[in-house]
Amino acid sequence: MYPALAIYESLKNTGEYEFLYVGGKHGIETRIVPARGIAMETIWIAGLARSLSPKNLMFPVKLLVSLGQSWRIVRRFRPHAAVGTGGYVSGPILYAAAKMGVPVLIFDADAHPGITSRLLARYARRICLGFAAARHFFTGDEDKLHFTGNPVRSGLIRNDRDALLRKFGFSSQRLTLLVFGGSQGARAINQAMALLAPELLEDAPLQILWQCGRGEFERLRNSLSLPEDRVKLLPYIEEMSEAYTVADIILCRAGATTLAELAIVAKPTILVPYPFAAGNHQVHNARAMMEAGAALMVEQGEGWERKLAGALQKLITDENLRQQQSAAWQTLAKPDAAREIAQLVLELAERGA
User: With contact defined as beta carbons under 8 Å apart, do 345 and 3 qualify?
Assistant: First the structure.
């Protein structure tokens, strides 16, 4: 969703266009996209479960229904171009658009592209990649490829850090650790932090801004006993620019959009890749950042919490390492990605079928 919104924002800044966002019926986009004043329709499609599940039996039905819904949406809206930013929702709507002669651009954010992007490649006029390493997944489509990097929302870093620290009730004399696991939170990271936070606070001049997710918030709030002046537990952070601005160290997952934002804000980071991501793409993403010197990676597994504690202590105590990681992130930043993709979209729209 966030790459799509970044591309939308860039397009909106270049002229007057009509937009339609097509999302999943039960996706988080149904809450966020309409709130931004963007017209939206939904289709029924849902992703396949990664393990054996009765839900998978409904997938063929949902796919057929979603193709019919997509066909009607494209015929009614009559777009000059269709853009997909990965994920299963892109499949039916972009397939329908391509079959009806609408120029299609697909963007894939990950070092290991999703199956939807790979299946759609033959129908796309342009393929934009967040990671250069993803090129080898598109053999035969080299003439369509553009390495743009990952588009991110604007205004991620602000100039009012001291005021924001006061807003969160924090001190400017302590290091601020930002912890988040995506918009839904990350239970494994939450459990590890619940275990490690007391000793981290005892051993170091640290304060923690912790987005735990709406589903975990009440449980953690009721079970933890941490000093309120040093730990701010939140279900969701609406303005990530505020969180990024106050952070000295970041602990998070390794989704491609998150990594693109980290490259812009250039903060020392520990990445804990989600182990059940499709194609293990978060591990590939995190490893690329680690090899570039921009982050430490800790994978979930037996005893991983102690490894995480060691990584946190390393960053907290080693200012030189923090500076090295910040510098490494800056070399990876692609601040013009959204603008570059928007220009390719406009070229497709103007060229037409």
Answer: no
**Which structural domain range is residue 55 located in?**
2-152+335-351
- What's the confidence (pLDDT) of residue 183? 60
161 Cβ contact partners less than 8 Å away, ≥ 6 residues apart: 245, 246
CB-based contact 281:289 (threshold 8 Å): no
Whether residues 340 and 221 share a domain: the answer is no
Exposure pattern of 189-216 as b/e (b: 16+ CB <10 Å)? bbebbbebbeebbeeeebbbbbbbbeeb
pLDDT digits (tens, 9 = 90+) for 89-121: 899 999 999 999 999 999 998 888 888 999 999
Are residues 147 and 35 part of one domain?
yes
Residues 319-329 have pLDDT tens digits of 999 999 999 99
Q: Are 267 and 176 in contact (CB under 8 A)?
A: no
Please tell me whether residue 313 adopts helix, strand or coil conformation.
Answer: helix
- Residue (of 111, 158, 86) closest to 297 by Cα position: 111
Do 112 and 183 share a structural domain? no
Query: What is the rounded distance in angstroms from the CA atom of residue 112 to the CA atom of residue 92?
Result: 21
* Helices first, then strands: H and E counts in the chain: 14, 12
Single pTM value for the model? 0.78
CA-CA-CA-CA torsion for 69, 278, 182, 49, nearest 10 degrees? 60
Structural contact between residues 27 and 89, judged by C-beta atoms closer than 8 angstroms: yes
pLDDT less than 70: residues of the chain: 47-56, 182-185, 352-353
